[in-house]
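Sample intake sheet
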Amino acid sequence: MLGAQAAGTSSRFHRFLQGLRQIEPWHGTKRLLKWLLEIYRRPMSLEERLRALGARIGQDVQLQPFTIDERYARLLTIEDRAQVGKGTTIYLSDGVANTISEAPDPPPIRFGPVRICKGAVIGRDSIILAGVTIGEYALIGAGSLVTRDVPAGMLAVGCPARVVGTVEEWVRTRYSEKAIREDRRSIYVYMPNWRRRRAIGMTPEEQDLYYEENFPRYGY
């Protein structure tokens, strides 16, 4: 009787082992490892990299490749819906006086947090110096050198950048029907803004194709 019980127990244990082989007890672990490898292989976006370095990056931002000293990234804040154009350089420190001085006790190196507030737009190839705040929905013209704060809603252009009016006035004047009609040197192609393009899933390739399709209307 005891032998029969032992044989029955052994048989059940054998079936249990077979069942484990069928359900693949490591299947979940393998899926987890595969997922982790996919994350590792996927390149980090610019927003992810800046956050990893300590910068405060808001939501729904558009960041094209720009330059900062990554050692001090924690001094950078870019708020929701802000945009930074390609080729922009943001300085978070100023050590030129320390570098040029020959004194035994040279001037200190200055560090200055940079804040790009909600909805502000930085035109491409601009330079923003340490300690500057760009106000909400302000606009910095392309190629500008920003040495001081720019108030909310204002347009600043030049080298050094100077406030020349409000963004609202500039848009209304430059892009009025009359101004567009009289401008013979430019091509105007109507396109949803970047937030709308992102929402509808328009790719950069589709955007470029749309432009190309419109150029023949102007002889290009």
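Comment: Residues 1-5 have pLDDT under 50 and may be disordered. The CA atoms of residues 120 and 137 lie 4 Å apart.
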